[in-house]
Amino acid sequence: MSVAAVLPVGVLALGALAIVGVMLAVILTNRLSPLAAMILVPVIGAILLGQGAGVPGWIIAGVTKIAPVAGMFVFAILFFGVVSDAGLLAPLVGAVLRLVGRKPSRITMGTALLALLIHLDGSGAVCFLITVPAMLPLYDQLGMDRRILACCASLAAGVNFLPWTGPTLRASAALHLTPAQIFTPMLPVQLVGLVFVFAAAWWMGRGEERRLAALPGAPAAADAVPTAPATADPLHRPRLFWLNLAITLAVIALMVTGVAEPAVVFMVAFALVLTINYPRAEEQRLRIEAHARPAMMMAGVLFAAGAFTGIMNGAGLIHALAQSSVALVPEGMGRSIPLLVALTAMPLSVVFDPDSFYFGVLPVVAQVAGHFGVPSVQVAQAALLGMHTVGFPISPLTPATFLVAGLSRIELGAHQRFAFPWLLGATLVMTVAALGIGLIGI
Q1: Which residues fall within 8 angstroms of residue 102, CB to CB, at 6 or more apart?
Q2: Minimal CA–CA distance to 51: which of 16, 98, 21, 84?
């Protein structure tokens, strides 16, 4: 017998609220890691509600549903790690540096372009680790504001949400949707966002041109940029560059079109690039070990999320909380829930860490929206317009925020104050685009 058949809806709703609240509290206060919190808190909550017997089955059901997403993420990290090791990104970095020259508006747009390309692997940390050190010498040589460097890189990485990036995967896992269902209809919205990114980068660069031109002894804009001689990396496979690029483009095309299961695409692609670039078994082992830690960490969080959603849905807790919350939504506002999510998602990235929001809050919001006939995919898409996509580079709850500020050699507060209006602008522009194409309603 399920809890829903024994306990009234009000008690279930209070129980769900307590579980979500405790989980958010222990994560946000660093009392528990997200992985531990998403397992222990709902298990204890279900036991206290007298439904401990159903927990094992619910956990297995939740983990089973999330397994394809977790598998996709593991092999996506391994795939992009191997092609990066093989030198796929090195020519791209060199080409951008050659193109930008010494004109600030070109340097800022080049920063955004480089961050956009590097972020194809879905890792904000890797994006900043490569982009900022590569561009910082140019900013320092010309005396450009380092806050602009951090902001341009943050904008490009934030708007470049992809089917294999963390927020998309979390939304997919939490609402039991495929990444393609969420991402593919958002391509036009993302393109509008990218236009905003490059327009904003150009505008900031033009402002720097005017500021620097007014300084005495300003350097000539056409001077050549000194470049250090490239050091050969033993892991690079320059002869295989075009093959690696072709495989990567094929993977991206398959992901966007949804022709094949994402987990299968990345499994096969990873096995191909690993074998082609590093044919010896020992080389393959070392490449897998080099990228295993981030892959396993995220997989663990996703499986823990499966346990959480399995218990919360199996025990009827999410449904009860959503049912009780419906009464709190003003009449006529139910259809606007995705719009409200979109408008608040980016600022709320400062308050919620990604796991807390996507696995604790988003399912409840989606259930409430469902009572008003709003598909859950719209709620997921609205969240991706800001929640730890555009919002992650200024959130104190993500390590990448400290990384981009530290690498740019600026104070965290200075980065947050400078970047916040631009990042919020990207969210608002994409929200207007989503409204314009009917992706979310009013």
Answers
A1: 138, 141, 142, 219, 220, 221, 222, 223, 224, 225
A2: 16
- Please spell the DSSP secondary structure of 203-230, one letter per residue: HHHHHHHHHHHTSTTPPPTTPPPP-PPP
From CA 133, how far away is CA 310, in angstroms rounded? 43
Rounded Cα gap, residues 104 and 83, in angstroms = 31
Q: How many Cβ atoms from other residues are within 10 Å of residue 413's Cβ?
A: 9
272-289 pLDDT, tens per residue? 999 999 999 999 999 999
Integer Cα distance of 94 and 115 in angstroms = 13
What tokens appear for 139 in the block?
A: 């900013």
**174/335 Cα distance (integer angstroms):** 21
List, in order, residues 6 or more apart from 217 with CB less than 8 Å away. Answer: none
The per-residue DSSP string of 130-188 comes to: HHHHHHHHHHHHHT--HHHHHHHHHHHHHH---TTSHHHHHHHHHHT--HHHHHGGGHH
- For residues 442 and 336, is the Cβ–Cβ distance under 8 A? yes
For residue 253, name the pLDDT band (cuts at 50, 70, 90).
confident
Strongest mean pLDDT among 76-85, 112-121, 268-277, 384-393: 268-277
For position 178, what pLDDT does the model report?
A: 87
| Dist. CA 422–CA 193, nearest whole Å | 11
Distance CA 144, CA 139 (A): 5
Helix H or strand E encompassing 100: helix 90-100
Amino acid, single-letter form, for residue 38: M
Q: Among 376, 361, 412, 416, which residue's Cα sits nearest to residue 23? A: 361
Alpha helices, H only, 315-397:
317-326, 337-348, 354-355, 362-371, 376-383
- Please give the Cα distance from 102 to 98 (Å, whole number): 10
* Residue burial 238-267, b: 16+ Cβ < 10 Å; e: rest: eebbebbeebbeebeebbeebeeebbebbb
Residue 117 token pair? 């390309």
